[in-house]
Amino acid sequence: MKFGVVVFPGSNCDLDAYHLVKDVLKQPVDYIWHQDENIDGLDCIILPGGFSYGDYLRCGAIARFSPVMKSVVDFARRGGLVMGICNGFQVLLEAGLLPGALYRNTNLQFRCQFTHLMVENRDTPFTRGITGKKPLKIPVAHGEGNYYVDADTLRRMEAGGQIVFRYATESGEITDTANPNGSTYNIAGVCNETRNVLGMMPHPERAGELSLGSADGLHIFESLLRHGEGGR
User: Fold this and answer.
1) Is position 205 annotated as part of the catalytic site?
2) With 70 as the cut, is the pLDDT of residue 46 above it?
3) Residue 232 has what pLDDT?
4) pTM assigned to the model
5) Residue 203 catalytic?
6) DSSP for the chain, written as a single string
7) FRET label pair with 31: which of 14, 99, 132, 151, CA 20 to 30 Å apart?
8) Percentage of the chain surpassing pLDDT 70?
9) 174-215, pLDDT tens digit by residue?
């Protein structure tokens, strides 16, 4: 399965994503510079975390207009797999590929910690290979991860299976104290209506090896590989 990792000025998790795909998953991967428009031959595109364009205006607001994003949007609308992580999630929201918005954390603090995620929808290319009911242990590192949608949109998203991950306790309870940023409904990750685009604030690429404290992020990438091989 061929991956591409987009690099914006200010990206700082592109190396992590590239390492996980190349050295852990042993899959082919290329960096995609933000000015490149040719993304032919890729099966999955990753928009990594960081501070694209210094997070000026709003997080992801300038990156959304990078030349590569027109190609990413076209790729997604043709059914290509796209994963936006942290700042990449913010870019996908600005590009209109996902519903909702991200605001400052309610505590106004930058939060860098492990979180636990309940998988709310296991019928996506990103989650079909995840078994069992144990929450995933995956870290966050953000100051603007407070996900918001209005009540009507939330109801439509629930009905359509667009809520993919929610913050939970280690035992799997959805509580306010497990929510690191104040996100509506404890939402940590969402997908589009056709489920080929995923945005999430936690960093699965930073939880791909036990030496990092957790390898639970591998479940998401291994689901993608299984999907690419035609499995469910």
Assistant:
1) yes
2) yes
3) 53
4) 0.95
5) yes
6) --EEEEE-TTB-SHHHHHHIIIIIS---EEEEETT----TT-SEEEE--B-GGGG-SSTTTTGGGSHHHHHHHHHHHTT-EEEEETHHHHHHHHTTSSSSEEE--TT-S-EEEEEEEEES---STTTTT--SSPPEEEEEEESS-EEE--HHHHHHHHHHT-EEEEEE-TTS---STT-SS--GGGEEEEE-TTS-EEEESS-GGGSSBGGGTB-TTHHHHHHHHHHHTT--
7) 99
8) 99
9) 999 999 999 999 999 999 999 999 999 999 999 999 999 999
Catalytic annotation, pick one of 44, 59, 86, 191: 86
Handedness of CA 89, 51, 95, 222 (dihedral sign): negative
Q: Which of 34, 142, 203, 219 is catalytic?
A: 203
User: pLDDT at position 87, please?
Assistant: 96
86 is catalytic: yes
Q: Indicate the average pLDDT of the chain.
A: 95
